[in-house]
């Protein structure tokens, strides 16, 4: 009898524990996990070039002229700039390489990064869209962009998933 009561009590305690443990869904691929018990993210090596300086001007190459890269889209939300967006807004996440190396960013508070709220004009196969930078993309190469669904849809169908050869420039 004692064993049966103990088993019922243990079962009840485990059920309550399972219900009270927080579960956080991941909204998209480049957000950090909210769970303190999450395993560390896998380490990856990036083959994209480090920012280089252009001759005479002294600015990193990603700040001048036309850039070429790949484009993807993601489910928006609270971005690295501290701004909560929705999928209907024309916003974009820039590469973590660009975000972290942007002139004036001290690396401490991403909400205060000067790249936040800057705009770029993106073109792909005769279509173009103006987007505002509000987020940081961990999986992007230096000049890749990760779009909100509505912005991506201005350039290509969702069925494409990833566009290569898009160009963009700062406004």
From TrEMBL:
Transmembrane segments: none
Keyword Signal carried by entry: yes
Record domain RlpA-like protein double-psi beta-barrel: where: 113-163
Signal sequence, renumbered to the chain: 1-18
Keywords: Signal
Annotated spans, Disordered: 26-59
Record's compositionally biased regions (Low complexity): 44-54
Domain of life: Eukaryota
Pfam families noted in UniProt: DPBB_1
InterPro entries: Expansin_CellWall, RlpA-like_DPBB, RlpA-like_sf
Protein name, entry field: RlpA-like protein double-psi beta-barrel domain-containing protein
Organism: Amanita thiersii Skay4041
